[in-house]
Amino acid sequence: MPSHRIAMLRGMNKALFIKLAILAVITGLLCIVLARIGGLADERQARQQEAEQSVVQSQAGPQTLLGPLLLRHCKETWTAGYSEQTRNFLAVLPPSHLQVGGRVSPDPRYRGLFKINSYASKLSIAARWDDFDRLNPPAENAGGRVECGDVVAMFSTSDARGLRDVELKRDGRKLNVKPGTTNAVHPAGLHAVIATPRSGETLELSLAVEVVGTQRLAVVPAAGSTAVSLQSSWQHPSFGGRFLPSEREVAENGFSARWQVSELASSAAADVAAGKPELETLAVDLIDPVNPYVMSDRAIKYGLMFIALTFVTVGLTELLTGRRVHPVQYLLVGLALSLFFLLLLSLSEHLPFLAAYLIAAGAAAAVLTQYAAAMLGGWLRGLAFGGGIALLYGALYVLLSREQTALVIGAVLLFAVLAVVMTLTRRLDWYGLASGKPQGE
């Protein structure tokens, strides 16, 4: 082989390696850009959480409701040796039956751009006691004497600032309600002193209360049997806690849900009587199905895959058409793909996520189509390139909206892309390309 031919091949190989190195550097720079945009999404999400905490501090946080319960403060005295010993304790009696019903009305609050899901819940609570033996506890020490105070009916919330209108009745007679529960384990709430029930009597209390809170409403099933029924106009509930509803219906005009829990399935009643602070609950959260910051963050995670697939497409076009693309053009295409995510993040703060996604994807696809037409030497190629980008954006939205099937969709998409690349390049003479030999020789 002539020396000038060898020199030419060496020059071509050197140019190829230099271009590949430049593309690697460009890809690294674009990864930095994506990381910065991802950091911005994290920052905005943190600011949203700060806004939520601001609402919690000025209004009320997630609410967990406990009660009504009956309790008595007792004191046992006994003699040990030559000294008198005492112990103070609390006798707590959960109801035999507890029924909670009402409506949860969404009341969103705003801090700047950020929306916080809060609510006002009007509840009717009915509790019944059939046995009062635990309100008269026996002495635990030999020769001990137990003295107990008045019987107190208490109702606890996790944040007492959320209590609005409250009316507690016994047998239709309104009781004098005071702040606090007199229970040190669950102090926030209200209480009322009631006449000591007689043996064999059935005690019924009814409580009408309006509770304001943020995002989550939970009820502790601290009773022999607990029935809870909630309705709301919120379309996107998330049911949680230790017990899911036995019946639920979620429709465009809201949701309704019913829970039925017995003490055979829940330890809440026993835990309350034992004075434990952590209790089982049944709960509902008012969530937004599409959080723009979470969705944007998930989209950014696919950014590198987008760039890699686009660079592969441009590289294939170079191979198949002989049209040379400068590294600067690769950089500009990559920047356009990266800035799509920044545009999506900023628009989703002001528009519904789908509208923001369509605008950002449409703008990016339009810019890349006209640029590819000049870069690849023809509008037909530019339209084909833009159509491919539009398909990628469509696939990305499917990945974002189908979280549970995102892995299988992504795997199928990548396999399909690989299959297309292999099909288009199955007849290429890669050695010929490296040596500059024309195809078909």
TrEMBL record:
Residues spanning the membrane: 302-321, 328-347, 353-373, 380-400, 406-425
Pfam families named among the record's database cross-references: CreD
Cited InterPro entries: Uncharacterised_IM_CreD (IPR010364)
The keyword Cell inner membrane is annotated on this UniProt entry: no
Domain of life of the organism encoding this protein: Bacteria
Keywords: Membrane, Transmembrane, Transmembrane helix
Protein name: Cell envelope integrity protein CreD
Source organism: Pelomonas parva
Gene name as annotated: creD
